Amino acid sequence: MIQKKIRKHLSIFRTRLNQxxxxxxxSRYNNTTLNAIVASLSKVKSADFTDEDxxxxxxxxxxxxxxxxxxxxxxYEIFGSDKTAMIKDICKNxxxxxxxxxxxxxxxxxxxxxxxxxxxxxxGISGCYVLESxxxxxxxxxxxxxxxxxxxxxxxxQFSSIASPSTYDIRExxxxxxxxxxxxxxxxxDLLFIDGNHTKDATIAYFKxxxxxxxxxxxxxxxDINWSPEMKVAWELIKNDSSVNFTIDLYKQGIVIIxxxxxxxxxxxxxxxxx
Length: 275
Ligand SMILES: C[S@@+](CC[C@H](N)C(=O)[O-])C[C@H]1O[C@@H](n2cnc3c(N)ncnc32)[C@H](O)[C@@H]1O
Prior knowledge:
The protein is an alpha/beta fold. The chain has helices at about 1-30, 30-45, 50-65, 85-95, 100-110, 125-135, 150-160, 175-185, 200-210, 230-240; strands at about 75, 85, 115-120, 140-145, 170, 190-195, 215-225, 245-250, 255-260, 265-270.
């Protein structure tokens, strides 16, 4: 028992030490986007939020609480499945946790993106955080994509309570159909949250296609990079892609920066959101 506790404390100590070294290494590059990511992480870790942030988080978390009580059944027919699941279980299993949503919110606030893309709306929890971050910005637009029609409807209702309908667009349909349609449009993104269809081939295909649809400096946030052996391989390939300047491995999420003003390529960091 005591040995287990000592091992845990030693591991936390080592993580903190490594983290300190990584932060020093990051600061040497003096890259604005890298610095914004680090500042967002640091604010989440120390819960250093403004009253406005607290209010935004409260609004989103009240919505989550409602969903976690909702026993309405959702059909997965669009995926060719006869499965159904209750909203409360979908919310528990698929929606990003509060800490990761707060990180996305701060990242968006700090980098002022004009076009944000999310692959994987689900019930719109992460989307609510994104909308809270841009609701005062008349120029920013948010596109989010989801296959399940009932989820699109639920998320859309909540989104309309946060921002004007011209701010967001929920693209309903299977990604195989909606993604090629999106690529044909003249839209270039500067913040991209890839949180749906966590297979190696799909993740790499989204990255390869979206590289040509960005406005650098652009930030990609890949969720669940260690969720499966396939996703680990996808993350390795993305990290080492020749277009990538910096990556930050947060274990759960992988952050990619593509910045045309930066000469450094494939510089890799690892940080931790917990310690
Ligand atoms: C992990 S959830 C997204 C969670 C959400 N970003 C959040 O944090 O609140 C992924 C979503 O992607 C949708 N999805 C997965 N594969 C899809 C596909 N091929 N076409 C359309 N939607 C898909 C699922 O239905 C699911 O709702």
